[in-house]
């Protein structure tokens, strides 16, 4: 049989290395964010057949990036810490605890990237939620009134009315989806769906805004008869965002998996650069609109 011993050092994380020492060795980016855990097995195995799962309570509650590390001696570049054979289990980790998966046994600890991103006070979070929900609710009411007025007071068959109603519908759908599911991170499928739909409708709104600018330019400045082009406007404004969303999903699935949507909120991740697809799209629309 085998004997397995595991224990947690109460104060070793304070004595082993100071925050300043670790920052100086890791480009001012990391510090210890958990107590140190030691695990040993007798007889010592050459290699574990199944990874060992370790759960650490974060010393500082934060959404900053964490890394699962082990103590390998003072001769390494990162002042004794290495992450070889260990990784964070993202789906089971959150701002308060970090779950690690490692293929060997030794002394383990969690390092957190230093970015000043600490958890807000409870009253501040409550205030932000209230402001967000009230603001978006008022915006949705305004959008609904806009759609009703356009339906009653204008000819909805006219291109300009269709364009402006499409802008309103896209923005309204995006805001409703945000309120309904931005924090649905516990369900991966629902969270990815929320993120994809928000990305789609926000991009569609931007496309319709661009189409409105092009329409007014051709109609007023160039005096072209462009009423027959509405079919093409719909294809571009509803179709192009589909391609962009599919590209984002493909990149997420090919890199870290779709769980990259679900770490902190149901939106595009900055850690795997998905957010830059959306930013580049917005920048493109703005440049063309100028």
From TrEMBL:
GO MF annotation list: G protein-coupled receptor activity
Annotated membrane topology: Multi-pass membrane protein
Subcellular location, principal: membrane
Keyword tags: Disulfide bond, Membrane, Transmembrane, Transmembrane helix
Entry GO terms, CC: plasma membrane
GAIN-B domain sequence ranges: 1-118
Domain G-protein coupled receptors family 2 profile positions: 128-290
Membrane-spanning residues: 130-153, 165-185, 197-219, 231-253, 273-289
Gene3D superfamilies per UniProt: 2.60.220.50, Rhodopsin 7-helix transmembrane proteins
Domain of life from the UniProt record: Eukaryota
Keyword check for Transport: no
Single GO biological process annotation from the record: cell surface receptor signaling pathway
UniProt protein name: G-protein coupled receptor
Subcellular location as annotated: Membrane
